[in-house]
Design goal:
There is one protein chain. With 485 residues, the protein is mainly α. Helix content is 76%, strand content 1%. It has a two-stranded antiparallel ribbon.
């Protein structure tokens, strides 16, 4: 495929997003940006959340990571399902009953303003790092496929992509994103299905023999019961639950979409249906991973040293024009589905929690747009810096970073929901800052201190546990709240 053709495909895709934003943002106001006027169909939100949850990390890293760790990521996904049930049963009724826009407003109601700002701060740091990691992965592919050939440097590519995202999100906000996420999910899943079909055709496999091939492969090993391993099944499963509750239930990015549904009943339907579709989508990506390595082995192809590059390398060089186009559409969709909602949720959290903007107050629209622009620029800077620092598989780097930043958020909500105690608000931010530092220290020396034990994704649980103990240490026995909820 020529560079001009690839660029045309990307521009056509962007034009489609602009068209969607035009129709969804025609009568948009400030409340539309923050809440979508709470009119989103639950099934549309559920389907669109697949693309937002998968993002570039799943699209590229998970198929490639199969070459390193097989299907040991599957227990995490199974734990995710339990986490979604907890969100639907516990958190959604609470957030809907209080009619929240920023979910960290609840921390202010439960503990005080210091807790609200602390929770929002950790979310902003977490989301900024996580979204930047995910977009970095996608920009790298687009840079290789398009922008290097036309002489555009990496930094300029980043600003172009985020600038385009800003154009179609600054008006309609979360309402636009609900619709564009659904469109992006279509392209992501279409790309994977077509790639699997092409590989099966090249290897002479029908669906039955494909299943047998994947099942018989050593790469489809899903369970690891070595207690010292970072991919231990029990640890992965428990971490999957915690990651889901923290990254979905306690994450403004994901919950803001849920809260655009008409009612708590509709939102629960959205969450339960999304959980099932999310499991199937991840199984599809893991299957693709096995087939990619099977294809490369059968054809004697030397794969890139970095597993994150395996899917892109094969799609753009061996699977034909149609598969290559779908790969580019899928990776572009993954980029936009990740970044657009991240920018909107970052803008929402900062505007509501720090600037105290009323969603119904149209007079502060310029201030909200300025915040949206500022986070766009900041994300560009973080991505450029990350390019200089990255030296690991992106999915592992991302999850470890999230474990350190989301731990305090998980602890604050857990302590608030399960106890009736208040805490010392002057010490609360310090507890939330110290717990990630202690977790990092323990993680660095865990093999020496604990007989070879290595932390994986469960570092999030350790972080949250340390922070919860810290909150218990500074709790005030006098003046308990009347209700934990």
């Amino acid at each position: 495929m020529s560079t001009g053709f690839i660029l045309t495909v990307c521009l056509a895709y962007f034009g489609l997003l602009i068209a969607v934003s035009f129709f969804t943002g025609r009568k948009a106001d400030s409340e539309t940006f923050f809440t979508g006027n709470r009119t989103s169909p639950w099934y549309l939100v559920a389907f669109g959340m697949i693309g937002a949850s998968l993002s570039g990390v799943t699209f590229i890293s998970i198929p490639g990571e199969v070459g390193n760790s097989g299907w040991t990521y599957l227990p995490v996904v199974l734990g995710n399902g339990v986490g979604y049930i907890l969100i639907a049963v516990i958190l959604l009724p609470l957030f809907y009953r209080l009619n929240l826009v920023s979910i960290y407003s609840w921390l202010g109601t439960r503990f005080g303003e210091s807790a609200r700002l602390t929770g929002s701060f950790f979310f902003i740091v977490s989301q900024l790092i996580g979204a930047s990691f995910r977009l970095f992965l996608v920009v790298g592919v687009l840079q290789l496929a398009v922008f290097d050939a036309v002489g555009i440097p990496f930094a300029a590519t980043v600003f172009i992509i985020i600038g385009l995202v800003w154009v179609y999100t600054f008006r309609g906000g979360i309402k636009t994103i609900v619709w564009t996420d659904a469109l992006q999910t279509v392209f992501i899943l279409l790309s994977v299905v077509l790639t699997v079909t092409v590989i099966c055709r090249e290897l002479g496999l029908d669906w039955s023999s494909m299943y047998s091939t994947v099942r018989a492969s050593e790469l489809s090993r899903a369970f690891d019961f070595d207690w010292r391993s970072g991919q231990n099944t029990v640890k992965q499963f428990l971490a999957g639950i915690a990651i889901t509750v923290a990254l979905n239930g306690l994450d403004q990015n994901m919950m803001q979409k849920n809260l655009t549904c008409k009612s708590v009943r509709a939102c629960r339907l959205n969450m339960f249906s999304f959980a099932g579709m999310f499991l199937l989508a991840n199984l599809l990506f893991l299957t693709l991973g096995v087939l990619l390595y099977t294809y490369a082995g059968a054809r004697g192809i030397s794969l890139p040293a970095k597993t994150d590059e395996v899917f892109a390398f094969l799609s753009l060089n061996y699977f034909g024009t149609a598969a290559g186009i779908c790969f580019l559409l899928g990776i572009t969709a993954a980029a936009y589905s990740s970044v657009d909602s991240s920018l909107t949720s970052l803008t929402t959290s900062f505007s509501i929690d720090f600037l105290k903007i009323d969603p119904k107050d149209g007079s502060r629209k310029r201030q909200r747009i300025a915040v949206h622009m500022a986070f766009s620029v900041l994300m560009c800077i973080v991505i450029i810096l990350f390019r200089e620092l990255n030296d690991n598989s992106v999915i592992n780097t991302l999850m470890k970073a999230v474990g350190y930043t989301y731990g305090p958020i998980l602890a604050l909500f857990t302590f608030g929901l399960t106890t009736k105690y208040r805490v010392n608000l002057r010490l609360l931010p310090w507890v939330c800052l110290i717990s990630p530092a202690l977790s990092y220290l323990i993680n660095c020396y865990s093999e020496a201190w604990f007989g070879g034990y290595r932390f994986g994704f469960e570092i999030l649980l350790l972080n949250a546990a340390i922070c919860t103990l810290g909150l218990w240490a500074i709790h005030e026995k006098k003046h308990p709240v009347k209700k934990a909820l």
